[in-house]
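Entry:
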Amino acid sequence: MSKPKVLLIYTGGTIGMVADARSGTLQAMDLDHLEEQVPELARMGITLETVSFGTPIDSSDMHPPQWVRIAETIGQRYAEFDGFVVLHGSDTMAYTASALSFLLENLAKPVILTGSQLPLGTIRTDGKENLLTAIEIAAAKENGEPKVAEVAIYFEYSLYRGNRTVKVHAERFEAFRSPNWPVLAEAGVHIRYDQAALLPRRTGALRVHTRMDDGIGVIRLFPGIRASWVKALLSDTGLKAAVLTTFGSGNGPTDKEFLEVLREARQRGIVLVNVTQCVGGRVDQGRYETSRAFAEMGVVSGMDMTTEAAITKLMFLLGQKMGPEEVMRAMGEALCGEIAVQ
């Protein structure tokens, strides 16, 4: 029986940094010497190949072209490997995971993103466990089929659906949470998978999409927000869509000037999507007076989507050259488990 094969894609991030033995300064790790940092890899019974993006990319500098590059790398090597692990900085990992879930249509193999809060070379690093378990999950099969067939994030003993994940802490090892979807798997003595939470294995050939349109904005509502400021943002000539992060279950100010700015943008074909600022829960647009106007003017309810998923889904849909009505309809459909449609 042949060993499972996993492709490790290094984009950057803390997990790929090691401390210089003399100066203590952090520098990018040479993947050819990865087993020197993580000798346990040699005992896993997995054939591991690595590919690097060259100069490490800080996750704050991760943009749509890099998301497409990761997707294309997976597509080019898809038939060769049983699974894929993407090493990535944690700050924007949830955005990248969400984007990949849309770019990799009909994905039927695991794509696991992981990283760390401390570099691999440090004594108390969380990177070693994250790396080893992410690789194990990427290689895991049952009855010849992958146990995981979607884009996911593995961090600190938990596996989360990529487009359901948010980063919730800048310092703790438990940096991520999936507030509106169950954990896909938990790693203890054994890795226990929640089959009901996992996406069913999709059929059909993998289709790698390569276009994302970043002509979107994000407007975080706050008490006292000025209609003139919102109007300035929505008047940008390159803007095609905007995510409104609203209060509670999708509520916002009832100020007439503010609502008129949104209504005028809708009339110009700007797609507006309503997601909640709350970490958990869902938008129930129209339940209260403070969101009824949104529903009446055609603001799309983001339901229980994360802001990260809403942003990247809009970029993806607009990249497919869809018109406003098509985008609005698709935003209400579950493409790859990013929302629970009621």
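The first helix runs from residue 34 to 37.
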